[in-house]
Amino acid sequence: MSYQFRRIEKAIEEDLKSKMVFISGPRQCGKTTISENFIKPNGAYYNWDAAKHRELIKAGKIDINKKIWIFDEIHKYKSWRNYLKGLYDLHHKEHKILVTGSAKLDYFKRGGDSLQGRYFFYRLHPFTLAEYLAKKNLNYIKAIEDLELNSSPKIQNALEKLMLLGAFPEPLLSNSERTAKRWRNLYAQRLIREDIRDLENVSDLDKLELLYEQLPNTVSSVLSINSLREDLEINFKTAANWLKILERNYAVFRLSPFGAPKIRAVKKEQKLYMWDSGIVADEAARLENLVALHLIRLVHWFEDYEGEKFELRYFRDTRGHEVDFIVIKNKKPWLAIEVKKTASSLDKNLKYLLERVKIPYAFQIHLNGDDSYRVPDINGSVVRIISAAQFLVNLP
After folding, report:
1. Model's pTM, two decimal places?
2. Do 336 and 353 form a contact (C-beta atoms < 8 A)?
């Protein structure tokens, strides 16, 4: 399995010239591999999970002669924030600092921040279709607004691999369904019994693992915490807390509903998606999950790299009308996306939403077939029915 360049690497290299860089994201999505590439020609790598490295960090004996210091999993060190603050304040003119770790970095970012102004923050994702194909950087907003119909058998085949193997580097780049299955069997166990065990206060890891195994069945439906807690025979508070723990550790992510009172949108009901789309058994739900991964990557890219305000939500109203995804740009709806397994005429729920809310661009995407065409505009919205391969290859 050969190494494949990740698009985020160029951005990290740019930002290391002025500040520390933090990389957060799901376990085994490539954070350590990327950081190791920055060791050459004059860097030092320290992994908190390695006893020898841990002692060097605690004793203040890191190699002062190296120009870049890379700290992996250092968030497991109780005093990691003060440690990095001291290093940066003393040495940032002569040394670069790259920090990688799990969702604790992201979680810490939302709270009080003693490192404010000293770092840039990135979230690394599993592969997107464009990244897997090593597609060159695009102007992503222009690519979507003036989308070119650039599908090909190569692009369609790549999408089929993402659907079959999942988007994480090891199973995807192995090109082996057997390897992907074996990797997936171990992933949850390592996530829960290593990362979550070390970082969170959970007394019953067995039931947490059972919860994780049940969650793929909820993808594409409105999440019911009450149903989950009944199945596991735990109380509501525990189930809700465990979901937050899984979110903090990049096992799942949730979307909140979009909409104003005038369209009777629901307010609290959420939808849940897996960071490992390959674990979702139902093909239609797996496609929706894979699209969700691409769209959350789009949102995070604009937030982390461009500094733009983006959100990903979904639409559902009290009458049951539902549209899979709404991308919010600068607090206004910008994209509406409905996902279908097969090509079909324009979905009535998407049409219903567009007639009531001004959304500049709307796509109905499908897995099977390469038909693509523009339907008449609705309330000023440019509407296209397009293959998933054609749409996703234009995202970052």
Report:
1. 0.93
2. yes
